[in-house]
Every structure is written in C-alpha cells, then in structure tokens.
Amino acid sequence: MIGGYAGKILWIDLTSKKSKETKLDFGMARKFMGGRGLAAKILFNQLPPKVDPLSPENPLIFATGVLTGCPAPGANRTVIVTKSPQTGIFLDTYAGGHLGPEIKFAGYDVMVIEGKAKKPTYIQILDENVSFKDATHLWGKDCWETETMIKKEIGDNEARVAVIGPAGENLVKFACVSTDYFHQFGRGGAGAVMGAKNLKGVVVRGTKSLHIAHPEKLVQFLLDKIEWKFTKGPNAEMVKDRIKYGTPLTMDFTQTIGILPTRNFQSGQFDEYNEIDGYAFREKAVVADKSCYSCNTSCTKFSVVKEGVYKGLSLVGPEYETNAMLGSNVGNSKLDLIIKANEICDRLGIDTISAGNVIGFAMECYEKGILTKKECDGLELNFGNMEAAFKLMHKIAYRESIGDIFAEGLNQAAKKINKGSEKFAMQVKGLEYPAYEPRGSPAFALLYAITDRGACHRRGWPVIIESRKYKPGTVEGRAQLVKELYDNRTLLHCIGVCDMPYNVAGIDQGDIAQLLSAVTGWDITVEELSLLAERVASLIRAFNVREGIRRADDTLAWRTMHEPLPSGPNKGQFISEEILNVMLDQYYQLRGWDISTGVPLPETLTKLGLDDVRSELERHGCF
Amino acid sequence: MGGRIVADARFCTGCRYCEIICSLFHEKKVNPRKARIKVISDLPKGVDNPKVCHQCINPPCMKACPQGAIEFDKILKIPVIIEDRCIGCKACVEACPFGEMFFDQERNVALKCDLCQGDPQCVKFCRALPHIGRSALTYVKK
C-alpha cells in the first residue's frame, strides 16, 4: 500500500446517472503525483481536441494531490481541471478549505464528472454511495444559500460541497465554483462547465482513513525542521506578517514597486492605497484568523464591516487580489465597498479577479465615451462608482442587457464593443490579468504570456526576488527565474498543497522530497521532483498545442506592449515586442520547446517519458 | 501527572491539525472522524470551537458506563477507556455534559482524550498565532 493516496478514481456520468470506480494506477500516480499533473494526463487522454468546453463531452475533473488530507503544511488543495469555456484551452483552478481531504476520506483521489443531466442535479457522495439528487429547487439560489440548503437536506453540517451560483447556471465565462462558503475555484469558468452540465453542486462525506507509510518519521520531521522554518528560521518574520495581514499584505509590495493595477491598468500606483492595504484591512475589518485544513499559516481572514451602510456584513476575505481588482483597479478606495463587492461576487459565483478587471475595463470605456450611459443600461460607470459596479455584477450574472456582453469575458466583450477598446482589454488567451501590473515587472509579463491557463499570478510570484535581484527595464535572468518559480508551483499543485505556507516559510524541494517519502513510502528525490515539474509543464503545453496554441498566442495586452507607464518608479517602462521575444526565446529553450512555434520538441517529450503524448502530437501534425 | 487540555475558541483557526495528529497518534492513520478532539465549526460565522475532554474528577461518563470500561489511570490520574470492555453502547457519549466523548463507528468503541500518555500531540501542533502569542490549545498540568 502506498501512503497518502486513497487509491481509487470515481467516474460519474450525469447523462446515464451511473458511476463506477477504477483503481488508481500507481505507476501513473508516481509519474504525475496527483493534482494538476494527474488530472492533466486524464484530460489529455480523455478529451479529443476542438470539443466545445460547454458540451457534455468536456469532463470536469476534481483532483486531490498525494498529500491532500495528510498532516503536511497546507495539505488541503483540490484542483478542478477541465477545458475552459473562457479560454478554450487547459484550465486548472484551485481551492482550499476542506473539500479535498473529504474527497480522500470518501476513498477517492480523483473524481471525473462527464455528461449532462437532464434537469438541475446535485451529486451526493457518501463513501462509495453515489446518488443523483434533484436540484430544481436550488436552481437560482446563490452559492451561500445553496451550500446551507444542501447541508440541511442531507442533515450533515460537516459535509463538504462544491456549488455554483446564478452566474454558473447562466454560463458566465468567469463563473467560479464555491466551497466552504468562502473558498473558490476562482479562475477560468469552471462554474460555467458545471452550469452547462445542469450540475448545481457536489456534496461529499467520507469516513475512511488515509494510510501514512512512516508516521513517526513524518511527525518528527514536521516538529523539527518544518516547525523551525515557520517559527525560528530566516523567514519567521515574514511568516508572522503573512499570518497577521493575510494576502492583503502584498499591496505594500506592489504599491512600493509600482505594479499595483490602478484604473484598469492605466498606472501602477494608487494614491489612496493605504485605505485598502493590509494594514488598513487588519485594523478596520479583520476579527478572526482562520485556516484551511492542515495549515497553520492562517492567511484566511474573517472580516466584518464595522460601520456604514453595510455594517455587520461578514465574510472571509477580501484577499489581496480582490482588494486590488475591486479597489485600485476600479478606482475605489473604500474597504467596506470592497467587502460588499466581494460578497456579491461570492454569492453570485463570479471570480473577483475577472469581475474587477472587466468592471475596470467597462469604466475606462465609459469615461472615454466608448460606452454611453444608455448603452450601459443607465449605469454611470465612472471609476470609483461602486454602486454602479454592484449593479453591473448582477447584470453580468443574470446576463441582462450590457451584462450579457461582459458575461462572455473581457476578450469577447472587447471584440464586440470594439472602437479601439481591445487595446486596453487586459487579458492573455482570454483570461483577464490578475492584480500585478506587468509593465513594471518583466518577469510577471513573461508569466502572463506563457501560463497555460492565460494571464495568471499563481504560477510563480516573482515580485520580491525580481525587484531585489534584477534591474527594471532589463530582461536579464527573467526566463530562468520564471521557469524555476513555475516548476516549484507545478510541484506544489501536483502534490495537493497550497503555495502559501511553502513559499512564505521557504519549504524547499528537499523538504518536500522528505515529506513525500515519509507519507508514501517511496524513496523520492529532488531530481525526480524537478523532472516531474518539467514533465507536467510540457504535457499541458502539448494539450494546448493540440488545441491550436502556438508562440503567437504567448503574448500580452496591447497596453502592456505599447503604452509606457505614466508614473511611479517604473515610469516610461513597457514590455516591447522585442523584450517579450527575447524572454520567450530563452524560456522555450529552457523548456526544450521549438523556438519558432512554441511546440515541445519531440525529443523533449521522449526525455520526459511522454512518448504517448509525442505520438498524439505527431498524429495531429503539430510538429 | 494528570491535567487537561484547555481550549480557547478565540484562537482556533479551524485547521483541524489537532484532529489529524490525534488520529495519526492513536490509530496510526489519518482520519479526523477517529480523533479524541473535535472542532465544531460554524463557517458562515467564522467560529471554530475545539471540544476535548475536561478530565473531570467526578466523571459522568465513568458513572454512566454499564461495563466499567472507564477507569482512573493510576499514573495519568485521568479517566481512560479500557477498550476491551467497551461494548459501544454510547452511554458515556450521552452522559458527557460537554459533548467531549467521541465514538468510532467502524470499531464500535468510545474515544476519549488520554493526553497521549502525558504528552498531548495536538497541543504541539496547535501553533500560537505569532502576532497574538496565543494558541487555541494549552496543556495545563496538575
């Protein structure tokens, strides 16, 4: 018995209302570990190219990692892997909370949901008992109501759910999936994939145990080295700040180095940032420090609006991304209004990052006269008008008037609105930029350009290293840095842990190899882990290549590449085509991908043990 | 010896490390359902409340047990369960006024905190919030 794994995959077909179990192939498990890697291989094998992401054929894969559920730092992640309706390519989107461990306790490492239900349905999984429940009465309910109602219905407050709100039902392209009320599989529209399947939710409860190969060894390692890294090591102060301020602490860095997106990425600093940064957040709103399962880097902040119209409103969050995207990026300096915006998004089931980006874009269109008040259904979408923003969020979720255009995501909306607005549509491959202004950070620019799921901040976080190590306006070292960070994250996303505790405390690949060896009983080396990260990066690239992605798609928004930053420490900077090209050349070389096309070289795939992927790309004439 | 684990819900983050480690120590596998400590959470309210045996001097669980399966341990000086005698009737679970006696459905035995023989593992893993300097669980020795 290999430790850590539950040992089974659950296959659910909504069309026939049937499910089956298969044994986990441990050879395949060792090759991809779990999470992103294992689910990517299942998706690659399962889904032929060019299938409509909203069709019944697109599988929705919930995957845990080998460590999910185990006593390792942040061992709580579940990833949903599917083909994104927003980008039309690979999507991996993660949530913390307690769902992943519960899936393991129910006996599964992975759940693959296929087909389409005839009417609104939720799936109930109690260990090996899978049932299909009518969700007609839940259709139209928001995420929080749905979670409460499902738990009441099954009479178990400890069950864990993944649910969608009205946005997912209405196939909004950036609809999220919600779990434990306040945790979201945020990016890329997994909520719309559920909506298209008539799947309102999944509820899981498990009673089984997880086997640990060497429990004493694991506990000793956690109490000695890992504990030292959190409490006494060189990163202990950083750990302390992260726990106190949560992710909103990041705004201190991004404002200082001038990469805080402001008014739809027009600039990189926000004059009133100290009204909405981590310090203001802690002082004005935070009332309790919370955590996901098996984590003591308590970055989950329970906050309450203490005065004003929304007094008494409470939730977990907002995170840094939300503070920036629904704060500075929409010209809003009122923290209570950010919390309200967060609540609206969470209830409707839309991603706060995409929402803030899309609304920032709408506001710039409005202020430039590209969209009139009449076209905006009477909304005065000036920067900072949050009451109008709240109304727009509802219109998006219910696809009313102008909301219907934005519900398609920024890329499609800009194409429809046209009139030069595409130049400031801040997205890559259809996924809206998150809260880092890339003109002040070539490393972030490269990350946005090359990330599989489109513009993303969770595949590396070069903020501090880049600003300390490299000169602004140069490209030196960026490709290497991005690849290293990317591979580190890939590893974390395959083993089923959150990046936060690992990055903050400096838990490195050597530590991870020891954790994995103690849990699984396999003798895992750092070399094996770096090869794993490379393998998964090329596998997912191959998936996207098969869907038609090439070098030309690894690009950035027009504004990023042509408009110099107007102010701040990076004044005058932009990421020219030349700069991007140099970084891409270097990055592809490091990956063993063809420089002219961005397609993984056949010999690279062979070296990584992906001969079957190589044959598949050959069959489709991709080389 | 003796003493008890004191829980302060104000500093509980709901991470369940206590449950995880408890099950690993006692059952040699991870299963929060088999832990001798339980966090009761109200997620929408942001409240997490750890429940763990008060180690009563005059324990209602011991009185309720029809089998004499709960005895004072001479060394630990706390009530402990003699599993061989437990018939799974749950009288102790019902008798505990704090809801701190738990039950293993699979093995059909009651589960009670035994302070890990005097070195409670959950307390070790309940790290203090560094900006407050307090943790949810404290081992108070007698």
How would the blueprint of this fold be written?
The complex is a heterodimer of chains A (623) and B (142).
Chain A: E1 8-13, E2 18-23, H1 26-32, H2 35-46, E3 60-64, E4 78-83, E5 90-95, H3 99-105, E6 110-114, E7 121-126, E8 129-134, H4 143-154, E9 160-163, H5 166-169, E10 177-179, E11 183-185, H6 190-196, E12 199-205, E13 210-211, H7 215-231, H8 236-245, H9 250-256, H10 278-284, E14 286-290, E15 300-304, E16 314-316, H11 320-325, H12 335-348, H13 352-367, H14 386-397, H15 402-406, H16 410-417, E17 427-428, E18 431-432, H17 442-450, H18 463-469, H19 478-495, H20 499-505, H21 509-520, H22 526-546, H23 558-562, H24 577-591, H25 602-607, H26 611-619
Parallel strand pairs in A: 1-6, 7-12
Antiparallel strand pairs in A: 1-2, 3-4, 3-6, 4-5, 7-8, 9-12, 10-11, 14-15, 15-16, 17-18
Chain B: E1 4-7, H1 17-27, E2 29-30, E3 37-42, E4 47-52, H2 60-64, E5 70-72, E6 79-81, H3 91-95, E7 102-104, E8 109-111, H4 121-125, E9 137-140
Antiparallel strand pairs in B: 1-9, 3-4, 5-6, 7-8
Description:
The complex is a heterodimer of chains A (623) and B (142). Helices cover 42% and strands 13% of the residues of chain A. Chain A is α+β, with helices and mostly antiparallel strands. In chain A, the strands form 5 sheets. A 6-stranded mixed β-sheet of chain A has the order 2-1-6-3-4-5, sandwiched between helices. The mean pLDDT of chain A is 97. Chain B has helices at residues 17-27, 60-64, 91-95, 121-125; strands at 4-7, 29-30, 37-42, 47-52, 70-72, 79-81, 102-104, 109-111, 137-140. Chain B has 142 residues and is an alpha+beta fold. Chain B has one domain (4-136): 2-Layer Sandwich (Alpha-Beta Plaits), CATH 3.30.70.20. In chain B, the strands form 4 sheets. A two-stranded antiparallel ribbon of chain B has the order 1-9. Chain B has a two-stranded antiparallel sheet with strand order 3-4. Chain B has a two-stranded antiparallel ribbon with strand order 5-6. The longest helix of chain B has 11 residues, at 17-27. Chains A and B meet through strand 13, helix 7, helix 8 and strand 14 of A and helix 1, strand 2 and helix 4 of B. Strand 13 of chain A pairs antiparallel with strand 2 (29-30) of chain B, so a sheet runs across the interface.
